[in-house]
Amino acid sequence: MKKNNIEGWLFVSPLVIWISLIILVPIYIAFELSLFNVKIIGTSGKFIGVDNYVKLLGKSKFLNASLNSFYWIIGNAICQTFFAFTIALTINYKFPGKKIMANWIILSFIIPTVVVVVIWKLMLSSSSGVINSVLIDIGLFDEATGFFSSPNKAFISLVLINSWRWSPFLALIILSGLNSINREMYDASKVDGANFIQQFLFITFPNLKSVLFVLGLVGTLLSFNIFDIIWLITKGGPSSATTTLPLLIYETAFTKFRISQAATLSIVTSFLLLLFSIIFIKSMAPKEDD
Amino acid sequence: MIKENNIKLIFLSLSLLLIILIFFFPFFWIITSSFKSPEEIIATSTTIIPRSFTLEHYNKILFNSDFFIYLKNSLIVSFSSMIISIILSVSAAYGLHKLKFYGNKFVEYSLLVTYAFPGVILLVPIYLLFAKVNLLNSYLALIVVNVLFATPFAVWMLKAFFKLIPNEIEEAAYIDGASRYIVISRIIVPLAAPGIASVAIFCFIISWTEYLFASILISGDDLKTLPVGLAGIVGQYQIDWGFLLSGAVLASLPVILLFVFIGKYFVSGLTEGAVK
């Protein structure tokens, strides 16, 4: 196909300009600010700004939040993969009500996150939550537990709640991959005597590569970015157990009012995520076939 | 053969049950609870089938709170963000789909990364930027941010829809002497209408559910959006559950209504070959 440089850029540029302005200008401001703090203390110099970064990297709060973010991403990836594949593979079968379910499964994604928070705060409430009372009725628990009271329980509950919100959306994207797989491959494998587990491992999974690439990249970054669900339920507690990097940035900037520290944090985090994205794209991007 | 089918049936029923319990039951629960009496909502013995019925919570939220102000703000912000997002992303998606140009792969992957990249990392810098240019506390602040969040994925989806339009139709139009503008407005957009509708819903949802930036960039009560208003109730020490639940149901209603009418385009758009 012949190149169409001017016209191509003409179509793309309004969006590209919009996005780059709203991303690059703020990042420049943040970068400037992360050096500015040093000037206030009274040392002016170009490279002294780096001290700000060095100090940050040694802080236990930063390390704790980075670790939490890491666990958060892994936990969400595992849970969401499980839920999303369960939903996608189930909806992919024929059963009565399939259409309705496929349309409405995404309900948890289209409602405001604040509503997600309201739903699960009530469901998991220790005094009047339906989950507690059901678990006690079956005999699994002796007494009501506070799902957000201990560090581990709070963290796991939040991972599950966040997965509840995102899995249906991811399931529909996986479903799009499933739909694009040639039906004849399954028929042929049946003739060869493959069971449905083998079909999943050797036909379904390999054919989802390009979809899984997008999900792996976007999903990881999206999980990382989650703020409101955690903030509105635990505020990062108990004892900072659910303080991920986004919460730390927010806290530093808007409850402790240390804007330059928060700016430094933002820059470091952007850099880490960018690095992850580049490595992920370079190593995992599927070969183009068109 | 029969044995395998049985296993499949058991698996299917089990996962259906699981899905219904996990993903649908909570909605039944908060909707029914929003009509329960305050005593029943906080009772330690929970009732699956409601024992009481009252409209007092809805009465309170509709006629005794700022609900309609928040609703108006959310509607203005979400519709404006949606329209701007659609215009920008249809143009960009067409460019990326049809016109191979220098740097198109770079733009494409950058968009994919920006889809997930912004969020909280940009919060502080954007706050500072908007403070500098006097944009804090305005609808425009939220619209600018929402468009940023919605468009990358919108472009990605739209591109997939454009791919489904046979090339010959467009070629034929050019032979008949149609201009690029005519081709886009008379052929591409109408043929991709279901796709554009589903992308529009996506953009609307992104704006409708956005909380973080709305809570920071807006400080005036008269400009707050629904999620921020609701979060204010969540944060109170003594939560008025009935009030909160009816608010949650009402805040979800507009997106659900929208979804009733064009939701099937959204779902089929997502499942029939988008994101490839």
Total E-strand runs of chain A? 0
Structural class of chain A: mainly alpha
List the helices and strands of chain A in order. Answer: HHHHHHHHHHHHHH
Helix fraction of chain A, binned, reads: over 70%
Mean model confidence by pLDDT of chain A? 82
3D shape of chain B: globular
Radius of gyration computed on alpha carbons of chain A: 23 Å
In DSSP terms (H or I, runs of 4 or more residues), the helix count of chain B works out at 13
> Based on the structure, what is the oligomeric state of the protein chains?
heterodimer
* Helical residue percent band of chain B: over 70%
Sheet-strand content of chain B, in percent, reads under 5%
Beta-strand content bin of chain A: under 5%
Radius of gyration of chain B: 23 Å
Distance from first to last alpha carbon of chain B: 34 Å
Distance between the termini of chain A: 11 Å
Keywords:
heterodimer, A: 290 residues, mainly alpha, globular, B: 276 residues, 13 helices, 76% helix, 0% strand
Characterization of this structure:
The complex is a heterodimer of chains A (290) and B (276). Chain A is mainly α. Chain A is built from 14 helices and no strands. The model of chain A is unreliable at 38-47 (pLDDT under 50). Chain B has 13 helices and no strands. At the A-B interface, helix 1, helix 3, helix 4, helix 5 and helix 6 of A face helix 1, helix 4, helix 5, helix 6 and helix 7 of B.
Task: Please render the helix and strand layout as text.
The complex is a heterodimer of chains A (290) and B (276).
Chain A (H helix, E strand, L loop, with lengths): L4 H37 L7 H10 L1 H32 L6 H7 L2 H4 L2 H11 L6 H9 L12 H29 L3 H9 L4 H12 L1 H17 L2 H7 L10 H11 L3 H26 L6
Helix pairs in contact in A: 1-2, 1-14, 3-8, 3-11, 3-13, 6-12, 8-11, 8-12, 13-14
Chain B lengths: L1 H32 L4 H5 L13 H8 L3 H32 L5 H13 L6 H10 L6 H25 L3 H9 L4 H12 L1 H17 L2 H6 L8 H9 L6 H31 L5
Helix pairs in contact in B: 3-13, 4-7, 4-10, 5-7, 7-10, 8-9, 10-13, 12-13
